[in-house]
Q: What sequence folds into this?
């Protein structure tokens, strides 16, 4: 009406509006010139060249513009200019996932460093969360293979007293055999294990980790809250404290997104979880091992004892999460605690390698033949044994030979002289005996020599 040339008063009369209202509407509808951008074409060319040299890094492009062209622009202004000039894509709206109770769980792993036995040790943190209630469960392992994955998922099912119908994972080779995302091919043993518990795996697309964002964020919380300021004696103690922290802290703390704690939300979700089978699938691996000459079998670089009678024989070894069982022809011959956090360790059962008892042996025959003949001889035999190694059989045999060879008087006189001087060299003792014999039996004084 205004563009048709009607007056302000006529417009007010026809529309039954006040003059101020009409003026306000006319001002709001008036076309205004678009604001000029705070940069020109030359600046756009400089920003484009700097961004190309910085390989798309805006921080580095900001440094190049300041250093080479003296163009000082704060980072937020530079990124806005880049978006306005079409040199950078604007941020995309984040999506949301709405999941029903019992529909999905999410599982992932992350490397952490924990203080175990006063040493910082690398450990793999495996965690699972129920997507609806955000109920968290995590454990630590020295390594994470398919054996540990099955062991963890079984413990998580026991912790939640049920499983969700779908478990979302990333494209880890621990569970996948090949492919990724929608084309992922899961390892047959992992698919069989999941079927036995009543759920299925699903892998998200590569680079789409937000699909399991409810398990991604707790890892930084675990590392910054649970591990901070705590020390552990071994992996068993670490996992005991982790379980207590899950119950007392992680799942008891109210979450704003839920309006309640995960434990309270779990009570809503629990009836929708799939019940566990009456008999849970055992997690184990089977190995064929030959007992070595030292009486041990080796599993994962660690050695476990076997009965000595089975040295050189082939045994069947079962590896469980917490123990090692050794079977021979269907008979259990040993159960060891599994050495989880050790390499090149050794565990021995006392009944496998009994310590041989020393048989108390009496005095040697030579000592019995020398004993009781004379007090001087007995003292010399005792002192000779103290100075010799072992049972002194060689020395006693030589001493007995000297006693039988030479006269008793000369022999005992030489022994008394040897005891006086502490002489236990039997060669020199024989020289003393010969001197005694020469003096007693070959005294030539007072006789004419022909």
A:
């Amino acid at each position: 009406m205004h563009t048709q040339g009607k007056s302000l008063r006529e417009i007010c009369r026809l529309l039954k509006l006040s003059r101020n209202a009409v003026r306000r509407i006319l001002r709001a509808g008036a076309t205004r010139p678009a604001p000029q951008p705070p940069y020109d074409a030359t600046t756009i060319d400089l920003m484009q060249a700097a961004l190309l040299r910085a390989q798309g890094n805006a921080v580095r492009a900001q440094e190049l513009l300041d250093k080479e062209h003296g163009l000082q622009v704060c980072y937020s202004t530079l990124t806005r200019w880049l978006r306005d000039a079409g040199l950078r894509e604007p941020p995309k709206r984040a999506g949301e996932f709405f999941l029903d109770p019992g529909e999905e769980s999410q599982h992932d792993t992350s490397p952490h460093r924990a203080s175990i036995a006063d040493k910082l040790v690398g450990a793999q943190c495996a965690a699972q969360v129920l997507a609806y209630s955000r109920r968290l469960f995590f454990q630590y392992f020295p390594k994470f293979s398919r054996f540990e994955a099955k062991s963890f998922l079984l413990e998580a099912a026991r912790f939640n007293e049920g499983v969700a119908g779908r478990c979302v994972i990333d494209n880890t080779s621990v569970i996948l055999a090949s492919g990724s995302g929608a084309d992922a091919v899961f390892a047959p043993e992992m698919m069989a294990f999941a079927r036995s518990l009543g759920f299925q795996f699903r892998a998200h697309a590569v680079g789409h980790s937000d699909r399991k964002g409810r398990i991604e964020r707790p890892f930084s919380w675990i590392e910054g809250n649970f591990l901070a300021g705590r020390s552990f004696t071994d992996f068993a103690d670490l996992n005991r404290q982790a379980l207590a922290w899950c119950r007392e802290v992680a799942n008891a703390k109210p979450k704003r997104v839920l309006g309640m704690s995960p434990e309270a939300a779990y009570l809503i979700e629990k009836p929708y979880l799939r019940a566990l089978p009456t008999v849970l699938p055992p997690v184990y691996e089977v190995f064929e091992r030959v007992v070595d000459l030292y009486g041990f079998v080796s599993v994962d670089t660690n050695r476990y004892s076997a009965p000595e009678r089975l040295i050189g024989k082939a045994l069947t070894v079962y590896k469980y999460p917490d123990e090692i069982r050794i079977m021979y022809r269907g008979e259990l011959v040993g159960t060891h605690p599994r050495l989880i956090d050790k390499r090149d360790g050794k565990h021995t059962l006392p009944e496998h390698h009994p310590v041989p008892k020393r048989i108390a042996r009496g005095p040697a025959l030579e000592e019995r033949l020398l004993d009781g003949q004379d007090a001087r001889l007995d003292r010399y035999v005792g002192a000779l044994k103290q100075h010799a190694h072992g049972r002194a059989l060689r020395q006693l045999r030589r001493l007995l030979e000297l006693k039988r060879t030479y006269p008793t008087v000369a022999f005992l006189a030489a022994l008394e002289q040897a005891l006086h001087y502490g002489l236990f060299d039997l060669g020199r003792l024989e020289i003393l005996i010969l001197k005694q014999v020469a003096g007693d039996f070959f005294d030539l004084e007072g006789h004419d020599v022909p």
In short: Residues 235-250 form the longest helix (16 residues). Residues 165 and 199 are 5 Å apart (CA to CA). The chain has five domains: 1-32, 41-84, 104-272, 285-347, 365-441.
